[in-house]
């Protein structure tokens, strides 16, 4: 049987993992990437101009993909298409928000066109927007520019990447246990706890940063083989959009907002790879505890079902070792009393965990 050909549009992380999944499923991926960034077998500097259903789509399920490379157009037929073109491909430069900009004598540019700080040496710079791009740029430019201003129209909550004990923020906050707490405590209680924590690091009111909105916590799909029906997907999208608009301030970022663990579990259910914590609690309690307390990494969805990986259990149980390893360039012997306290605390937590899991699953 001839392999089904799949067009993968975009060679970023989504495109690359889509290629891997296609290969695992015995499909033939062809990746189109309009830049020449990645080496290897892919077709480079090829822009996908359009994707259309073929006239016989109803019986063949095939797509017509029009590409352009070095001014030459080409039409190819595929059995499937994966759109991995990214959320931030096009720069958003809302010049209409800055009346009079055309008379500005200085230079202005979008962060996407920024390459290095040289052109700003000794200059006064204003960065508009306090997203990750704004923050990164302010840090980089302040070393060489004369003065740097970081501007925000409605304030923001500043979340540091490094959380308690020097661990990465997402490692500590993306566990099933934390999401379970969020569900039982409610968003407003969790928000006030987080706001208190963030204010301990930097008093948002004092710095004039405190926004009107509270902290907005947001933090596989290429393994999905059968999509739900179009009407089901549209209904889901409408529901998600309504929930998002209630929870977050009006923003262009809505398309990428959602709860990480919830989204992963929902997709894992559809793919059939969600680990069953309750049955694991009896058959493999050590693994069950790690799945509940530890960071919810993609390897959690390689334990069973399509894409199952034999090394998954070991990789999950050693996640923390790999996080700690690069930090431990000088190993300090831990004191016995400390070790026994940690062991005791772990035992107590395990007991609590089993009590919780009986209600959670
Ligand atoms: C400035 C910046 C810094 C970031 N830093 C971090 C970070 O430190 N850590 C982190 O985890 N995330 C970071 N992110 C987020 C991360 O980069 C994205 O989540 C990730 O790149 C998304 O991957 P993707 O494959 O969906 O899209 P992309 O990486 O955007 O890839 C999409 C690809 O599709 C190609 N493409 C688009 N249209 C077409 C077309 N018509 N035809 C052919 N090819 C096309 C593009 O050229 C691009 O190569 C950062 C993002 C930005 C913008
Ligand atoms: N190091 C990193 O990890 C890194 C670095 C860069 C980018 N990224 C990622 O790339 C994505 C994009 O980040 P980003 O920082 O470029 O964009 P962003 O998060 O959308 O932030 C854009 C900022 O610009 C402001 N803004 C938008 N339109 C405006 C207007 N008309 N007038 C005034 N201010 C305006 C927004 O204000 P409001 O909040 O008021 O809307 C916001 O502060 C994110 O997913 C981010 O995580 C990551």
UniProtKB/TrEMBL annotation:
Record localization: Endoplasmic reticulum membrane; Microsome membrane
Name under which the protein is recorded: Flavin-containing monooxygenase
GO biological process, one term: lipid metabolic process
Stated family: Belongs to the FMO family.
Catalyses which reaction(s): N,N-dimethylaniline + NADPH + O2 + H(+) = N,N-dimethylaniline N-oxide + NADP(+) + H2O; sulcatone + NADPH + O2 + H(+) = 4-methylpent-3-en-1-yl acetate + NADP(+) + H2O; NADPH + O2 + H(+) = H2O2 + NADP(+); hexan-3-one + NADPH + O2 + H(+) = ethyl butanoate + NADP(+) + H2O
One Pfam family this sequence matches: FMO-like
Function: Acts as a Baeyer-Villiger monooxygenase on a broad range of substrates. Catalyzes the insertion of an oxygen atom into a carbon-carbon bond adjacent to a carbonyl, which converts ketones to esters. Active on diverse carbonyl compounds, whereas soft nucleophiles are mostly non- or poorly reactive. In contrast with other forms of FMO it is non- or poorly active on 'classical' substrates such as drugs, pesticides, and dietary components containing soft nucleophilic heteroatoms. Able to oxidize drug molecules bearing a carbonyl group on an aliphatic chain, such as nabumetone and pentoxifylline.
Transmembrane segments: 337-360
EC number: 1.-.-.-
Catalytic EC class: oxidoreductase
GO annotations of cellular component type: endoplasmic reticulum membrane
